[in-house]
Structure formats: C-alpha cells, structure tokens
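Lab notebook: predicted structure, single chain.

Context: the supervisor wants predicted structures on file for every construct in the current expression panel, including those that have not yet been purified. This is the next one on the list. No modifications to the sequence; it matches the entry in the shared construct table.
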Amino acid sequence: MIKVNVKKLIKQADKCLELTQWEEAEKILRQVLKVDQKNPEIYYLLGEALCKQERFIESIDTLSKADKLLPNNPRVLHLFGWTHFMNGNSNVGRKLMEKAHYIFPEDIQILCDLAVLENKEENYNQALIYINEALKIDPMNEMAKEVLQVTLYLKESNSKQRNKSN
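Prediction complete. Output recorded below exactly as produced.
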C-alpha cells in the first residue's frame, strides 16, 4: 500500500464517520495503521470512531497516541477531553477542552461541549459563560442556541428543586 492509498483510505474513513458508519471507519483505519503508525490523523479519526461507538477507554488510548504525535493540537485535545468526560472523568475532560479552547478560542463546538460538561456538573453559571461566548462568535449558531436553551432550562429546574427543598 503506497502513501497515496493511505491518504485515500483516510479520506474514505473520514467520509464513513460523516455518514455515521463508525464500524466501517474503524475497520479502514485499523488497516491503515498497519502501514502507517506515525500519522496522528489516523489515530484521531480512529479515536473519534471509537468514541462514537461509546468505547471510551479504547478511544482515550488511541487519542493519547494522536496527542503524542501532534502535541497541543486543539482538535485532538478537544476530542480527547470529550472522551474523558464521556468516560466519567469530568476534571481531566475539562482541563483538556479548556486547553483546546485556549489554543483555538473561536471554536464554537469546543465552547458548546464545555457548556455541556458544566451542565452535567450542575455548574450552570460557568456553562452560560461558555455558551454566551459561543453566541458572541456566531449569534445564529443553532447548536449554541440549543445548548443555551438547555442550560437555562436546567438552571431554572435546579433552582425550583432547591426552593422546594428549603
């Protein structure tokens, strides 16, 4: 398999990810890894395929290889953080996604995911900070508007529950 085929297969796997064909993407990427073990994009995409299949520990292991090959890449850090969060480690996830945000502050997806993490942790004010930052970048972004609505709903629900308890 020559280099051109590796690029073609990576592109094919990326297309599978877009089409939510996680297992097919994984299969292609594992084949490509047999030929090219120094390409961080292969590890990143494989980590994404594993994360989408909710195989978080495998995804974390794979993304750590991408991070070693391409340190401080915001795309890798973001997915690495999200995977840690989804695996139940919010603190590590937050640190990685905050680092990705620091490197790439205008990425709305990172901001939305940080808001989702903070919502899960019931840190609604911090979630609102992130989501308002995303909406400053793009006030019409549908994902950011949806996360804002969820955050406001959760904050209000939590407040009502606390008032009932008192």
